[in-house]
Design a protein that fits this description.
Layout lengths: L1 E13 L2 E11 L2 E12 L1 H14 L5 E7 L2 H8 L2 H7 L13 H11 L3 E6 L7 H15 L4
Parallel strand pairs: 1-4, 4-5
Antiparallel strand pairs: 1-2, 2-3
Helix pairs in contact: 1-4
Length: 146
């Protein structure tokens, strides 16, 4: 199984507002950047979309070390929130509907193909790839102004 790293980030101007996302895939010393934007979205949707678009790029099942500064994304898997949401018919522990269910379900579909380990990184810090993802995500939503 191919092993690679994916760094992801999402950004939003307003919440909701214009948003952008970026995933940088690193395999055998080569990089591929996947990015895009949406007009009326939230930061959490952009964080999830970055992960989804990165994984959708893969053509064969892979073992992925996925780096994100989004606690929302990493804790959903590392702390088992996603399992509880599914058990509780997509409701949170406070009984409200889980937001972004459409994206969570697509991400779960991709996780049935790929072996992914989620790694939380500190945002806006000294992680070169996370900083690049952030810059690209911001540039994506800024393009919507032109």
């Amino acid at each position: 199984m191919k092993e690679l790293k994916i760094y992801t980030d999402g950004a939003c101007s307003g919440n909701p507002g214009k948003g952008g996302y970026c995933a940088i895939l690193i395999y055998n010393g080569k990089e591929k950047v996947v990015s895009g934007s949406e007009l009326n979205t939230t930061n959490n949707r952009m964080e999830l979309l970055a992960v989804i678009r990165g994984l959708q790029t893969l053509k064969v099942p892979c073992s992925v070390e996925l780096f994100s500064d989004s606690q929302y994304v990493t804790d959903a898997f590392n702390k088992g929130w996603i399992t509880n949401w599914q058990k509780n018919d997509w409701k949170t522990s406070s009984k409200s509907q889980v937001k972004n269910r459409d994206l969570w379900e697509e991400l779960l579909r991709l996780l049935s193909i790929h072996l992914v380990r989620f790694v939380k990184v500190k945002g806006h810090s000294d992680n070169e790839y996370n900083n690049r993802c952030d810059q690209i995500a911001v540039s994506e939503y800024k393009k919507l102004d032109s």
